[in-house]
Amino acid sequence: MTQPDTPLHTDDIxxxxxxxxxxxxxxxxxxxxxxxxxxxxxVLSAMQAALDNIAQDDTIRVVVIQAMGKxxxxxxxxxxxxxxxxxxxxRALFQQCSQMxxxxxxMPQVVIARVQGIATAAGCQLVAACDLAVxxxxxxxxxxxxxVGLFCSTPAVAxxxxxxxxxxxxxxxxxxxIDAHTALQxxxxxxxxxxxxxxxxxxxxxxxxxxxxxxxxxxxxxxxxKQLDMSVADAYDYASEVMACNMxxxxxSEGIDAFVEKRQAVWKGC
Length: 270
What we know:
Elements: E1 7-10, E2 14-20, E3 25-30, H1 41-55, E4 62-67, H2 78-82, H3 87-106, E5 110-115, E6 119-120, H4 122-129, E7 132-136, E8 140-142, H5 153-159, H6 165-174, E9 178-179, H7 180-186, E10 191-193, H8 198-210, H9 214-227, H10 232-246, H11 250-260
Parallel strand pairs: 3-4, 4-5, 5-7, 6-8, 7-10
Antiparallel strand pairs: 1-2, 2-3, 8-9
Helix pairs in contact: 1-3, 3-4, 4-5, 9-10
């Protein structure tokens, strides 16, 4: 990726940088390497605030979620969880985490996980919740709550919507790790690269997205997630309406004209 600009926001748990002002790329970095970047209440709150702000910024087109240190994210902060014995705390924690994951799906920007190390439990959920994911060859993934007597119920929501049913259930019921190439085969991630080439592979994916019409990308992301919960017939009805509306955009006229005239399209955006 390009050399980062001055951080937009920095604290002891989160770093937000606008990496490429021309492409509209923002990087959100988990910054608790000594704690394996676990998702404490404070981290979830910081991520929610950052994502909410980003979602309102039309100049941002791609969000990269990455992490400092050796681990991508080891899930929830187990020490914090054990310090609270009341069900109300845990209920609020899992609802907070679920809301953050839903925000990733609902925001107009494309969100890409850059996985440089292990991603376990809610960390694996975070990878699954992102629209796309790239991983280093040595990265590993697990829904490991079962190993401490806690079935990864909330991670199961995202993981089971990425992986085939039997592969998802095997991960959830055994807690065993899978490597990056297996995660690619299962559909949890999109691309695998040697660690030294991870940023290059990430940048190629970003460039492929930002080269497209921002209208088409935003329309497409919103449509994609909404139709997943519909019947096939309802999905086709909905998709037809979205496509008809999309056809009215100036970018579509420009794109078709550019294709016919064998030239590069000049997108106007929203």
